[in-house]
């Protein structure tokens, strides 16, 4: 009888552990603060500060970002819940971009496409460090003025 109870308990632990592993959160999920000093904005200027939250939502992602621009303007960006399928999702609060699409390209790497009125503005590659404490973001494209943008941003998990 004891062996049977032990086997049942071990089986239950295995089932629960397997379920938890299968539902492991995406490395990008969490709250991130921009380290402006370690970031480079071309053509610039860099924002004064920025905090971004990625959270799980119905098998996908929901993102919000609060930024104080170099001019002191406050921006609150919300990206509608999205899947990792590369399809455009509406966003509010960003004057340069009105849709974002998300795609996971590797274990800790994500591609985010930002568009305005259907036109590609920026391609963003985000890589979460193996220790999940930092992430780097490379943003390439052209801004609303037609200037080439090449931003390298360094974010720290909060």
Q: Give the helices and strands as they follow along the chain.
A: HEEEEEEEEEE
- CATH level 1 class label: Mainly Beta
The helix tally amounts to 1
CATH arch. level architecture: Beta Barrel
**CATH topology, which one?**
Lipocalin
Basic shape? globular
Cα gyration radius (Å)? 19 Å
Supply the helix-strand structural class.
mainly beta
Name the beta content range: over 45%
Number of strands: 10
Terminal-residue CA separation: 49 Å
Structure report:
The protein is 13% helix and 51% strand. Strand 3 (60-68) and strand 4 form a beta hairpin. It starts with a helix and ends with a strand. It is mainly beta and 158 residues long. It has one domain (25-157): Calycin beta-barrel core domain (Lipocalin, Beta Barrel), CATH 2.40.128. The protein has a ten-stranded antiparallel beta barrel with strand order 1-2-3-4-5-6-7-8-9-10.
What attributes does this structure have?
Lipocalin; globular; 158 residues; 10-stranded antiparallel beta barrel; mainly beta; 13% helix; 1 helix
Fold topology:
Layout (H helix, E strand, L loop, with lengths): L1 H21 L7 E5 L14 E9 L2 E9 L5 E9 L6 E4 L6 E8 L2 E8 L2 E10 L5 E9 L5 E10 L1
Antiparallel strand pairs: 1-2, 1-10, 2-3, 3-4, 4-5, 5-6, 6-7, 7-8, 8-9, 9-10
Brief summary of the model shown:
The protein has 158 residues and is mainly beta. Helix content is 13%, strand content 51%.
């Amino acid at each position: 009888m004891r062996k049977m109870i032990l086997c049942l308990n071990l089986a239950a632990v295995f089932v629960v552990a397997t379920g938890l592993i299968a539902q492991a959160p995406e490395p990008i999920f969490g709250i991130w603060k921009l380290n402006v000093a370690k970031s480079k904005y071309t053509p610039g200027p860099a924002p004064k500060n920025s905090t971004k939250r990625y959270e799980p939502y119905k098998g996908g992602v929901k993102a919000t970002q609060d930024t104080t621009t170099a001019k002191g303007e406050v921006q609150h960006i919300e990206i509608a819940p999205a899947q990792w399928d590369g399809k455009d999702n509406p966003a509010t609060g960003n004057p340069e971009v009105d849709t974002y699409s998300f795609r996971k390209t590797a274990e800790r790497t994500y591609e985010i496409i930002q568009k305005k009125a259907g036109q590609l503005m920026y391609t963003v590659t985000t890589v979460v460090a193996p220790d999940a404490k930092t992430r780097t973001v490379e943003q390439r494209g052209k801004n609303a003025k037609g200037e080439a943008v090449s931003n390298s941003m360094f974010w720290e998990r909060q």
